[in-house]
Amino acid sequence: MDRRDFLKITGVSLGGLAIPTFYGRAIAAEELLSTIDVGAKKKLADVALNAAKADGASYCDVRIGRYLRQFVVTREDKVQNVVNTESTGIGIRVIAKGSWGFAATSDLSADAVAKAAAQAVAIAKANARLRTEPVQLAPVKGVGEVSWKTPIVKNAMAVPIKDKVDLLLGVNSEAMKAGASFVNSTLFLVNEQKYFASTDGSYIDQDVHRIWAPMQVTAVDQKSGKFRTRSGLSSPRGMGFEYLDAKAGDKVELPGGAIVYRDSYDMKADAIAAAKQAKEKLTAPSVKPGKYDLMLDPSHTWLTIHESVGHPLELDRVLGYEANYAGTSFATLDKLKDKFKYGSDKVTIFADKIQPGSLGAVGYDDEGVKTQKWDLIKDGTLVNYQVIRDQAHILGLKESQGCCYADSWSSVQFQRMANVSLAPGKDKLSPADMIKGIENGIYIVGDGSFSIDQQRYNAQFGGQLFYEIKNGKVTQQIEDVAYQIRTPEFWNSCVAVCDESDYRLGGSFFDGKGQPGQVSAVSHGSSTARFNGVNVINTARSLG
Amino acid sequence: MDVITESGAKAILDKAIGYAKADQCVARLNGTHTGNVRYAANTVSTSGSVRDAELVVEVAFGKRVGTSTVNQFDDASLAAAVRRAEELARLAPENPEFVPAIDKQTYAPSKTLVARSAAVTPEDRSRVAADCIEHCRKQGLVAAGFFTDVHAFSAIANSKGNFGYQESSTIDFTCTVRTADGRGSGYAARNTADVSTFDAKEAVEIAARKAKASVGARALEPGKYTVILEPQALMPIMYFLMNGGFDAREADEGRSFLSKKGGGNRLGEKLFGERVTIHTDPWDAQAPVLPWDEEDAPRRRTSIVTGGRVDALRYSRHWAAAKGRAPSGGIGNVVMAGGDKSTDELVKSTKKGLLITRTHYVNMVDPQTMQLTGLTRDGTFYVENGEIKYPVKNFRFNESVVVALNNIEDLGRPERTVFFFDLAFPMLLPALKVRDFTFTSLSDAV
Q1: Pair A510, A453: CB distance under 8 Å
Q2: d(CA A225, CA B264)
Q3: What is the pTM (predicted TM-score) of this model?
Q4: Which of A63, A95, A317, A381 has the smallest C-beta neighbourhood within 10 Å, fewest atoms?
Q5: pLDDT of residue A80
Q6: Please, what is the average pLDDT of chain A?
Q7: Pairwise CB contact (< 8 Å): B366 & A541
Q8: d(Cα A236, Cα A210) in Å, to the nearest integer?
Q9: How many whole angstroms separate alpha carbon A415 and alpha carbon A390?
Q10: By the CB < 8 Å criterion, does B32 face chain A?
Q11: Does residue A230 fall inside a structural domain?
Q12: What is the pLDDT of residue A12?
């Protein structure tokens, strides 16, 4: 996850786009609800496909995208920003002379689109000179004209700005009443209207929705000069505004008293809890470093899965295509052949682009491949990676797994992480049962500080709430906890995973990858899991 | 690589402001023309160019503000954008933190544009990639890298008659070279305003040398070591220190390492070692930036830290008014004073220590103490009696940047560093020799 991007967007200044406080109804709400006529998109796509073929392309795909985003940013009793962005255009990707070429334009006239297609072919031909091997594309059968839509109940773009502002200011007010010194709360809403067409004979119209409601509640003790922040325990989701309906059945009370959420979020209740817990953090005892058994809540584990399993099993990283930036992977192809023990037999980790309500769920990926679910690690053994069409042959696969994504019409699509999730345990086990067997442990809720090396071996994670476990019971909230792992040892130390009734989704709204950088949104599900004998460090320092 | 000219930008801004009926109107027009080439596994993976521009219109009736954006600049689109902003302003409640548009300013231009850097062609980019790939292929090494050239413009205007326009150019290059067996990895990065000072072959040779030299790394025990952080290794660490811009409001609110116990801030206190001196200067010859900040206030040459003492905090126009102080102008660049030694000379004067090429995935652990974690990568070497002895396995560090800047033993010659993120400010940083830098574990990653 690229948290820096998040901070960048929520900052008072958005670079050149500094948008101040306002209040009222949605900006040109009718513009947020409209879509481009499908017939017009098909016509335009055919212009590009025909132009590319005429210029000598052996393959062409076209993405006509309209990307709508809305951000509402508040602190205490003030609205800092309401931002509506809209971006529309066409991206054309071709194979000519065995090489990829890409061009994009915001001009949706037939002439401009034909020119962009020709430019993409010209770039492909130019790149062919430096290419060592021609692109091998796994076949995809054309699906004709189809459509897919995120199954939302309430379109967040249709909810008036006033309701969103009232919600956030209400949340802030509750946090302040509960003793917070400061509170920042934000709504991020995304609607991607994506039309894909290719020379394989597919014309796919998709309407994708996502929502995120992060907050940070800060407690300051001026006397001691200490401050602590507790972030919200929501997760970004592939849902509509119904995620904020706060249904009573979606609340889960954990051993120790923390409340977490399933498929809808009570932001006000979480703000009150956050204020109290942030204050408790100010005086909570500092952890004694050493080996502990960790009990990790899904609101935390998602990030560990993301960094230590999701990224290293992206085939482009394994092959060295990200070597200059985020890095490569320890999970090299020989490990697949040798049936590498990535984790204990309790560890089955699957990838998918279909889980309802997940950030990665779509009908088809950005190269027209129908989405699916597959295992990456089966009963502890490495069994697969995540691939796209031009990588499938490397693994001897006959088809792509559907992991291709571009964050804009103007970005070239490439391999991005699918949802990657820890399968629930097969035996009945609740968090309350799990804790009973832990003598000396720490229970971690929520995600915190994170860092992992360029081959995904050595990682360090913090959290939001840390509870000391002694002899099967939570004793007290503690602070300054971070654990350090070596990926295979960590997953091999997994001794138990709670059952399906505890399965919940976490995720990243802004996962960064590539140069130039692109973001994507991805979910990671798990049930509460136990890891034995993990190295915990104390992160407290004194500046004197 | 062309962008909207000064007269073209002024015409668009004047027209937008002319349409406004509100008490005031601020308009900002920014655009870039960017080219790039990316290569990996000794082949070009992507290349392209993107041209983009956006106008932000911000209007106010009294203290009620509305804003809209548009990327079409014909008369009808401009008029519609202004109308939409005014409609929003009429609906808005009063913003208690509203600050009126700035009065007419005189901005002294800074030399942010080097014409030849704005004239890089697709062939030039392709040559950079080919130079790196060929150099590595010949030696049995594997290159992965990214080269990007940006020609940008920024134009601001308001209904009080203020106007500013300036173009800028930047060249960024990074290259990671690995041995074919994956046992060695090296890195080089270059950032410059002037493409004529950029030499891909020189940079890739350094990365290649480090890749070969890092094969066969030995494991040292984690613990406290004297480290020589090359400027590029220091960059992510300094980014976390400077990213908040030494903000006075955060400090006064008690949620910054610059907050004072009992209330207030630590302006004027000696927080860092004697040899830490940092300033910002839009006209710096090596790292010039726009002469206005995000509030259109003129940037000034400002000492931020002198001899370890905090000289200045960032006062926004709102916070300055609230505290009865003058606004400070936002930080556009960071210039850290150094010495005149090369990294080799810093190595020569080191009895025992580690030379660090690059730091990776640096992240905040505790903002209270500016405790950061991250890892070394792409060239970590053990130094003894002034010589590089052997490569060592990478480490994870957990260290407070405030503590590290109190433990400086020596400084090298400052140079421009490459930053990865879009809202980067250029940083001119020296190599630093720091004692007692805390490593908490080893990494098997190469």
Answers
A1: no
A2: 10
A3: 0.94
A4: A381
A5: 77
A6: 91
A7: yes
A8: 7
A9: 10
A10: no
A11: yes
A12: 28
